[in-house]
Amino acid sequence: MSAINVYAIRAIYRFEMARTRRTLMQSIVSPVISTALYFVVFGAAIGGRIPEVEGVSYGAFIVPGLVMLSLLTQSISNASFGIYFPKFVGTIYELLSAPVSYFEIVLSYVGAAATKSVVLGLIILATAALLVPLKIEHPLWMILFLVLTSVTFSLIGFIIGIWADGFEKLQAIPLLIITPLTFLGGSFYSIDMLPPFWRTVSLFNPVVYLVSGFRWSFYGLADVSVGLSLAMTGVFLTVSLAVVAWIFRTGYRLKN
Amino acid sequence: MQTVISVTNLSKTYASGLRALKNINLDIRRGEIFALLGPNGAGKTTLIGIICGIVNPSEGTIRVGGHDIIGDYRAARYMIGLVPQELTTDAFETVWNTVSFSRGLFGKPADPAHIEKVLRDLSLWARKDSKVMTLSGGMKRRLLIAKALSHEPRILFLDEPTAGVDVELRQDMWKLVRSLQASGVTIILTTHYIDEAEEMADRIGVISKGEIILVEEKAELMRKLGRKQLTLHLEKTLVRIPTGLSSYSLELKSGGTDLIYTYDEQVDRAGITALLRDLAAAGIHFKDLQTTQSSLEDIFVTLVSDRK
Ligand SMILES: Nc1ncnc2c1ncn2[C@@H]1O[C@H](COP(=O)(O)OP(=O)(O)OP(=O)(O)O)[C@@H](O)[C@H]1O
Ligand SMILES: [Mg+2]
Questions:
Q1: Is A18–B109 a contact, with Cβ atoms under 8 angstroms apart?
Q2: Would you say B4 and B28 are in contact if contact means Cβ atoms under 8 Å apart?
Q3: Handedness of CA B92, B96, B99, B104 (dihedral sign)
Q4: What is the pTM of this model?
Q5: pLDDT (tens digit, 9 = 90+) per residue, B214-229?
Q6: Do both B209 and B256 map to the same domain?
């Protein structure tokens, strides 16, 4: 009886996925449309005038970065909203009074948010494949990076959702931190194209490692070694898990 | 009587520094209906919140069905259903889904027949496919009860269940509570309606400013309530009660102009007649009289205001 509350995990996961279905437009369709617009603008319109990057057409080169951009922002916004909303309307009382462990809460909320991100990433890839010549050299690595990134950033979103005490804070982090980091993280260029000083600065940007590893799984091109990308992803995941564990141990912003 | 919830030396200080509960000791008996009464801000919701795991206790221990609510929270919480004071519900889910969700959350496999029964009992069956936001306030209140009952709890907390519920539905609700009790469920409720506590509860607890100031069998309280007072406004001031009247429970008030007779209606039926006859015989005349009966409300108000 005390092993694990599978029914609760299932209930929360389903509830969250139902929320995704209800907000299909906002959660799946609009990121797909905006990503498709990027392809049209950067790939087809401008991309034609930009030389190939190490043998990959510019339109194809930016695909992994664009997928990452969506993955990061959507994971964060979806996971943060998922836990922030019950806090905001008060329905969190039920979660707090239920026989569920913190592990089960995180597993189900973050699992649902990450599932959605993975699905979204795959849909964007499929969209991209229609517009640019796409090739995936290392599919398993691609899936690995896709899943790890989705999970990590859903965890970060979960943390933000607990920390936020207003909608502004909920939107501030993706807007003020994640989007700039992603744009400057080599989504649209290889950081090898940068002057040495800015290249060094870029290495402090965590997103660089995510984009680089992800792009490597497509074209075998990487700014930093794949091993380093994977290791850094693991570090982010571990740090996020540690913060979540701390939040639950202290009841931070969840219980009075 | 078996104890199903035991609260020992419980105190709660909120982050703001407010001491919401002060050294609470309380035992709830298996199968009883316990009414917790107290003015606004007394600490009722805080106490319930701590037992249910929503608020962290500052000091003290609580056992539910013998399980520590922190060390063995899972076993404790499986037993509990909570209907919160605030109407907090999902907006976009359907009635059916939100009640089924609660059952899963509390670790029970899906059981459509049980969910149907709960929804029918609460007159929500016709609305099972409605979105929650389309329900009226009273329906939302009943939805919260349905959610709390979805996992067949052994203990049910009702934090002001009848606020905003119309008379007819209130009757239905009490019928439901009675039938739950008959099936062995322990019920703890808070209310501001004293007549409700009077009608429903087996025991009554009064909390004020974070302290439990009275816990008593309702029957015992009612016995105290059964006492009436007859006040006689005398024509002439009386210095002392004549010895011939010492068999009556009499008191002199207002400097000897009021004679007060306290009696139990059930026991001393013939008391008044005899007293009046004996008074006349003793030459004591009165110009007016009145009788009063204290209610639970009076006791409650006196108890609470004594503490101010
Ligand atoms: N989250 C909180 N932070 C700080 N103080 C709180 C918090 N919740 C409640 N209090 C305070 O604790 C005290 C007890 O509140 P509680 O809600 O338990 O009272 P109550 O008996 O349920 O009152 P009511 O009849 O109005 O529902 C009040 O003074 C209240 O202001
Ligand atoms: Mg209250």
A1: no
A2: yes
A3: negative
A4: 0.85
A5: 899 988 877 766 677 8
A6: no
